[in-house]
Write a structure and sequence with these properties.
heterodimer; A: mainly beta; seven-stranded mixed sheet; four-stranded antiparallel sheet; B: mainly beta; six-stranded mixed sheet; five-stranded antiparallel sheet
């Protein structure tokens, strides 16, 4: 019973490039959440999605960030024109009820 | 009102001792309070969780104490072990939002 899967685990981008982060939820889970963790800080909510729907994007920056969870395939968090301040660990979580289970994260470094 | 305040920021405990981490919240709509354990380079792992209809929940060496009137909850780790050395996060959420609001984390070090 595989857990939440995220790839890539590490991603290096130069300023101005696009970063694409993928998340496959646990089997049977239809809710996906994205969180961002800056070094030495707690996790901050970004977006909550169900299949083909964005339920809550109140934590997403207004520009350059987008997320989707298509009918088929993983959830994608896309960051366009990355800047150094985007360097962080990005975690995906999935749930069926209240319990959210986290993936191993993608560590994004912007040079 | 959405904040969850966590203390202490760091904690050093001797092996076999009790580790206590505290959290406080403001939003009375919160109705689910999980604790997560995170090792360096890993994702947070759900440790134990509580709802406000009970004042205490115990799972093995881990206990959550919940004080609804004070809007506070705490994690107690009994017989702390070096393998418990990690960062612990409290969190809170409500049924109408589903998003987790995390505390700032407590870095626990257990020395032999």
């Amino acid at each position: 019973n595989a857990g939440v899967m995220q790839n890539p685990r590490h991603l290096v981008r130069r300023r101005g490039q696009e970063a694409r982060l993928r998340c496959s939820p646990m089997k049977g889970h239809s809710h996906v959440y994205w969180y961002r963790q800056l070094p030495e800080e707690g996790l901050k909510f970004m977006v909550y999605l169900q299949k083909e729907n964005i339920i809550d994007e109140s934590g997403m920056p207004k520009e350059r960030f987008s997320a989707e969870f298509p009918k088929e395939g993983p959830s994608i968090l896309r960051i366009q024109q990355v800047v150094r301040g985007d360097s962080a660990a990005y975690f995906c979580a999935s749930s069926r009820t209240n319990e959210q289970f986290f993936g191993p994260g993608t560590r994004l470094t912007v040079l | 009102q959405q904040q969850v305040k966590q203390s202490p920021q760091s904690l050093i405990v001797q092996k076999g001792g009790i580790s206590i981490i505290n959290c406080a919240y403001e939003n009375t709509a919160f109705d689910y309070f999980p604790w997560y354990q995170q090792f360096p380079g890993k994702g947070p792992a759900l440790l134990i969780a509580i709802r406000p209809d009970v004042s205490e929940k115990k799972e093995g060496r881990f206990t959550i104490s919940f004080n609804k009137s004070a809007k506070q909850f705490s994690l107690h780790i009994m017989d702390s072990q070096p393998g418990d050395s990690a960062t612990y996060f409290c969190a809170a959420t409500s049924a109408d939002t589903d998003k987790l609001i995390f505390g700032t984390g407590t870095r626990l070090q257990v020395f032999p």
